[in-house]
Automatic annotation (TrEMBL):
Span of domain D-isomer specific 2-hydroxyacid dehydrogenase catalytic: 8-313
Single GO MF annotation: oxidoreductase activity, acting on the CH-OH group of donors, NAD or NADP as acceptor
Originating organism: Enterococcus pallens ATCC BAA-351
Domain D-isomer specific 2-hydroxyacid dehydrogenase NAD-binding, residue spans: 106-283
Xref: CDD domains: PGDH_4 (cd12173)
Family label: Belongs to the D-isomer specific 2-hydroxyacid dehydrogenase family.
Keywords for the protein's UniProt record, in alphabetical order: NAD, Oxidoreductase
Keyword Nucleus belongs to the record: no
One of the Pfam families matching this protein, by short name: 2-Hacid_dh
Protein name: Phosphoglycerate dehydrogenase
Cross-referenced SUPFAM superfamilies: Formate/glycerate dehydrogenase catalytic domain-like, NAD(P)-binding Rossmann-fold domains
Signal peptide: none
Transmembrane segment boundaries: none
Length: 327
């Protein structure tokens, strides 16, 4: 077959075997930065990207590129217009990490409900203060508000409904009541999610519509006893406004698995707030999710370069890619 696939980061064995058994040559990248990709991309027909950004400069440097596959459910790191301009198909792995991220969202809710960051801070110096004086709540019977009810949001909803006996309300302008899990109340008022929920969990992509759509206004709508969870994309939250709200304890707490800048700078003040738990974007970082994502990415590469119908194209490029990508 002779196709070369660039791997700026290694993929798991299932994905590697899938491609190599079909005659693809896998090229190990020299680094993750833009200049590394530009240097390595020449002569490659495809690329599977995890942390690296696919900028217009990368597409301009590529001389044979036909397919980009994002190793995960997000694709805001890919310049889609540049991909269109250079006739490159873009795929992703939207269902590979759904279970792992949903479990992470529940983990962060539990972390917040038990005030775990403050507990860890105090229990060595004052065991009984940490045990008896810090406020904690149950999740049972509380209201969970979801922004987005796709693959991940739907799984979170089911876990909350059946595992924690929560009431689940959701806002998703692209879903109908029939398309969301049974027991979820779909509402058309974005503000209502923030007003009524004890936990608000974000599960939507970062795009022009959603970037910065949670800030001072939305946080002011929330109950002072409520918690905000973000396992989606850091760009969804206006970080400066969020910091001010949390510094002033506008809500009870928050957990962020994602941030505007990753990794965050050591002087980011959010890192040092007792009421904000922050993780290193670990939602999809499980063995199972990584295995599935690598395999799904390999399938996407093969589908495009073999001229097959693509299972997981980026939604914005479905029609474009079906008509225009040639191999």
């Amino acid at each position: 077959m002779g196709y070369k696939i660039l791997l700026p980061q290694e993929i798991m064995e299932e994905g590697r075997e899938y491609l190599e058994s079909r005659g693809y040559e896998l090229i190990k990248g020299s680094g993750l930065e833009e200049e590394d990709i530009i240097r390595d991309i020449k002569g490659c027909d495809g690329i599977i990207v995890r942390l690296s950004k696919m900028s217009r400069k990368v597409f301009e440097a590529a001389d044979k590129l036909k397919v980009v596959v994002r190793h995960g459910a997000g694709y805001d790191t890919v310049d889609l217009q540049a991909a269109r301009d250079h006739n490159v198909m873009v795929c992703y792995a939207p269902v590979a990490n759904s279970m792992s991220v949903a479990e992470a969202a529940m983990m962060y809710m539990l972390n917040c409900s038990r005030n775990f960051k403050k507990t860890q801070k105090h229990f060595i110096d004052d065991f009984y203060y940490a045990k008896l004086k810090l406020p904690r709540v149950e999740m049972d019977g509380k209201t969970l508000g979801l922004i987005g009810v796709g693959n991940i949001g739907s799984r979170v909803a089911k876990k909350a409904l059946h595992g924690f006996n929560m009431k689940v309300i959701a806002y998703d302008p692209y879903k109908t009541q029939a398309e969301v899990p049974e027991g979820v109340q779909l509402i058309d008022d974005f503000d209502q999610i923030f007003k009524e929920s004890d936990f608000v969990s974000l599960h939507c992509p970062a795009n022009e519509e959603t970037t910065g759509f949670v800030g001072t206004r939305e946080l002011e709508l929330m109950k002072p006893t409520a918690y905000l969870i973000n396992t989606a994309r850091g760009k969804l939250i206006k970080e400066d406004e969020f910091y001010e709200a949390m510094k002033n304890e506008r809500i009870a707490g928050a957990a962020l698995d994602v941030m505007m800048e990753e990794p965050p700078k050591a002087d980011n003040p959010l890192l040092y707030l007792d009421n904000v738990t922050i993780g290193p974007h670990l939602g999809a970082a499980t063995i199972e999710a990584t295995d599935r994502a690598s395999l799904h990415c390999a399938i996407g590469v093969d589908e495009v370069l073999s001229g097959k119908e693509v299972t997981w194209p980026i939604p914005e490029m479905k029609d474009f890619c079906k008509k225009k990508v040639t191999v």
